[in-house]
Design brief:
Layout: E1 4-7, E2 11-14, E3 19-23, H1 34-42, E4 50-56, E5 64-70, E6 76-81, H2 82-88
Antiparallel strand pairs: 1-2, 3-4, 4-5, 5-6
This protein binds zinc ion.
C-alpha cells in the first residue's frame, strides 16, 4: 500500500514526492548562548510515537509543511503549511 500525504496545496500525493527534514523544534533567538544553539542543531530527543516533523513538498508546490504523524505506525493525523502553522502559534 502506498503511503499518501495530503498536501494542503496539492491534495493527496505519494510520500515519495516529499523530503522529511526533521522534527519541529523551537529555534533559539540570535542572542541565545552557544549551548542552546548546539542543542538546536545537534541534539534530538528521537521520541517514539506521535510528533511533528517538517516535510518539504519537493516534487510538488515546494512548500514546507508540518506533518503530525506517528513515527511507529506512520499514521498521519494532520498536515498544515509550515508558515500558517507558525503564524497560528503566535
Ligand atoms: Zn504541495
Amino acid at each position: 500500500m502506498a503511503s499518501l500525504i495530503t498536501c494542503p496545496h496539492c491534495g493527496t500525493r505519494p510520500k515519495e514526492e516529499f523530503s522529511v527534514r526533521g522534527a519541529v523544534i523551537a529555534r533559539p533567538s540570535a542572542s541565545e548562548k552557544d549551548e542552546a544553539w548546539h542543542r538546536y542543531v545537534y541534539v534530538r530527543d528521537n521520541p517514539k510515537g506521535r510528533y511533528q516533523e517538517y516535510w518539504h513538498h519537493a516534487a510538488g508546490c515546494r512548500r514546507w509543511l508540518v506533518v503530525n504523524r506517528d513515527n511507529l505506525t506512520h499514521e498521519v493525523f494532520g498536515v498544515t503549511d509550515a508558515q500558517a502553522s507558525r503564524e497560528g502559534s503566535r
